[in-house]
């Protein structure tokens, strides 16, 4: 609904709040990637897009470290 209405600011705020509520790193990373795509494609804010993608990448890297350490 937010995307169809072009309410990008509100959608991004909701997704950022959702990231904070999630405890599963894979879900958090997916939400950050979604935010990155919105920032890049719809809002044309490359700095915020890069930040969101970096956060997703950092979460994935931490997940991989956890797998290695638990092996």
Number of helices: 3
Helix content: over 70%
Nearest-angstrom radius of gyration? 13 Å
Uncertain residue segments: none
Arithmetic mean of pLDDT: 92
Q: What would the principal axes of the Cα set say about the shape?
A: globular
- Percent of residues in beta strands: under 5%
Q: Tell me the series of helices and strands, N- to C-terminal.
A: HHH
Estimated structural class: mainly alpha
How would you characterize this protein structure?
By secondary structure, this protein is mainly α. The protein contains three helices and no strands. The protein is globular, with a radius of gyration of 13 Å. It starts with 7 loop residues before the first helix and ends with a helix.
Topology of helices and strands:
Blueprint: H1 8-21, H2 25-42, H3 46-70
Helix pairs in contact: 1-2, 2-3
Features:
71 residues, mainly alpha, 3 helices, globular
Outline of the structure:
The chain is an all-alpha fold and 71 residues long. The protein has 3 helices and no strands.
């Amino acid at each position: 609904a937010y995307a169809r209405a072009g309410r990008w600011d509100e959608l991004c705020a909701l997704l950022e709040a959702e990231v904070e509520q999630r405890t599963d790193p894979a879900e958090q990373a997916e939400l950050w990637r979604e935010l990155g795509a919105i920032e890049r494609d719809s809002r044309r804010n490359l700095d915020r897009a890069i930040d969101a993608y970096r956060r997703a990448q950092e979460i994935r890297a931490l997940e991989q470290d956890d797998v290695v350490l638990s092996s």
